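Internal tracking record. Fields below are filled automatically when a chain is submitted to the structure queue. Please do not edit lines marked as system-generated. If the sequence contains nonstandard residues, flag them in the REMARKS field before resubmitting.
Queue: standard
Priority: normal
Entity type: single polypeptide chain
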Amino acid sequence: MSASDLQALPLVQTLERILYCWQVKAPTVAQSLQPGLTREQIETQLQTLSFHLPEEVYQLYQWRNGREDRYNPTPQVEFMPGYQMLSLEEAIAEYATIRQLLLEDEEVKENETYLFPLFAEGGNYYVIQGDVEPKATSPVFDFFVQVGLELKFNSLTGMMLAIAECFETGAYSIDDYSYLNWDDLGADQIWFKYQPHRIAKADAILDNAAAILNNQVQHLSDEEQQEAYSALAEMRHPEALPLLIQAVEKLEPEVKHLLFQRHHAPTASEQADAFEALPLKQSNLFSLITGICKIDTIEAIQYLWHLMKRNDAGIRDAVVVRLASFGISESVESVQTTENIELADLLFQILQQSSTWNLELVRLLGELGDVRAVEILLALLQRTISGSFSLRKQVFVESKAFVQINPEFPEWKSLLIVIDTLEKLGASHAVEPLFQLAQQQQDPTIRLTAGKALSALGDPRAREIFTQLLEEGSYTPLHFEQMGLDV
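SYSTEM-GENERATED OUTPUT FOLLOWS
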């Protein structure tokens, strides 16, 4: 197949749309994809497989041969959040690992191992179904090593069409540091259009919601019930709130009993039963609570407030966090006034009771307009400067010298979140420690993030940081121009 013939294929045209989005925003990252292989090279490498891969796979690897270096800590092209395209060599090696894992189950048949990985994120994969006969297309599955398979798309082309639309509509966006950001809801709505099996399931969920409204819940499984309750909440159906409350009132005592049994059951067997049953029951309860939050009427929030007051940590914290996630609406404001206690105070209590600083909860506290979020973030920033950055509240060893933090460190991403959140909260007290951090750290992403925050906070020394990064060659003038930064 000639290069012009390849470019005319719908799959390749769609892949080019995705790559163009990376080339515009992060041209250096776009170059991390290796050139495509010839068909002969692909066939040679795949000859060890005992099955055929669909024609789409040949088109994919003739287009590009995946990522350049799996161990490279710098950003590489992500087709979905966290997922990079495997080179053909990597894919073959990963297939052997997946096959071995599947065959550990004696009930798995040989043809059920024909799952070839194309995209990977750690130990999770998007795999395409192989077959004993050659085919043009095959289904694509999400494969979680610890969970199993979930059908995602009927073909690789369908998957790429969904991803391309996500990039072009902003549901996926490449940030100023060449990392992929995403809007979960927006992306899910786009994916839904390209997933016929989900459309069919949505119709079934609506039928189940109708069954709940007609008091015919007895024939529905727990999963079907939860999906139907969620659908009713999303629609804000007039009968949704009493039905959700009724379901919570039935499930809450079961969860409380399992929580008690987990620690106080007289036998180890009963404790084990509680440990096994609790996660699903809790998940179902929290899903119902989320549904009530979505309804967001005074009656809904008032019920959640009373539910919170009559429960201890587990259920109470779940209510607080979910209310905080939805923000201060008029309904929440009204109930806060009636109850004479602030949602931010309740969220701060949860943070105080934890042994670590949960950055997501700190961020929520900041979005509620509470200055204590800034105090926590500043303390974490000062820890970095002193060489003891940690989300643990008790840091037992204070270093005398600062530590260089880079993408290989687990703290790296957390530190970026700290800096970014301080910028968004307009924390003027962070100016000096941010400048000190930028002077201290060598990692260009940390320095750029700190400089961007300083610029947003009105500190002219940000230009000094940007100039240094330019002189070092870490970033180009185009990169700063795209970020809207004055250098």
